[in-house]
Amino acid sequence: MNSSELQRICDWLIDGTWAAQEPAVGIADFCERLVAAGLPLWRFGIFIRTLHPEVFGRNFIWRQGQGVEIGSVDFEILDTPEFARSPLRIVFEQGIEVRGRPSDPDSKRFPFVDDMRAEGATDYIAVPVPFLDGSIHATSWITRQPGGFSDDDIAAIRAVIAPLARISEIISQRRTAEMLLDTYVGNRAGARVLGGQIRRGHHDTMQAAIWLSDMRGFTALSDRLPAETVVEILNQYFDCQVAAIRGHGGEVLKFMGDGLLAVFPIDEYVGDAAHVCARVLEAARESRASVEALAFPVGDGVERFRFGVALHVGNILYGNIGGGNRLDFTCIGPAVNLAARLEKITGRLGRTVVASEGFANVCRHDWHQLGEFPIAGFSKAQRVYGLAEETPVVMA
């Protein structure tokens, strides 16, 4: 392999050009530059472990003439026979190179290498990619060149690992920040924080449909079941709502015990309030069906659940609120306060879904007026609406 071309590739990695591209584009560019410089590369893979509650890692696989395939794996892969007999397991656990020549009988311990031989591979090497934080990630390099990789080829691969690790770590850290912010504060709020809105007092005013829900009988449930069981129930219960909320354009801002606060932004310039509120109502119906179907086995019995959700629409203040260096990106305002008060009324009325007069006026539907109720903190009684399709259920 041409040494001056190899140096140019290392310099290209170090100057950060790749970081400005989509990962798949950068990886394809990287591999094509190596091939043009003389490395007989047929297939390349880079496997980056992630800091995500559900995803173990992401993989990017380049094949000559086929571009880059992107995938991800969850933590269940760690318990599979395929991973147990994978060269990458050794790389992740021991941080060492693993070479497998399909012609070498010792490579039979790696079924993947046998699979690659069937596609014409003559050599395979997995090389660790150490990050500065001590975590180990991995690359795999495969050739179809007769005789496999030469000593010079292996030296060239090792030479690009350090700059590849640095640029990969930069991209990975930014993606990790995005994922963590998305996971813990929501995608819109996360984007704002990552974009620099980190000072206390930074805020925007926006119109939104507001969703505030909680589980019926949660206090009693917590009192009679082990804490670990309650946590598992809450996770499944929230799953019933979060998928519907996000699927219909909402953002979950906060979990408060068994309570959930979400907003569905409304573009006032487009005038899509009716469309947004219709999607909110559809999310509420989907969540209601999911919660009703949820059956959690406890001992010899099964726990069933009910919840209530209040829907309102109005202007909210959306931004950084907190004390000292501990901030929360959340929403406040009279509209949020009203939604919280209405949510308490759902239990008294035996309803799953209640809406404010403002929401019912925007979301034209078969609503049933439930009456006017005095609301703490509000000077006037508020008219409340329920779905005509619902039959009130008074909990004992």
TrEMBL record:
It is an enzyme of class 4 (lyase). Keywords: Lyase. Residues 209-343 form the Guanylate cyclase domain. The keyword Nuclease does not apply. Its EC number is 4.6.1.1. One of its GO terms (molecular function) is adenylate cyclase activity. This is Adenylate cyclase.
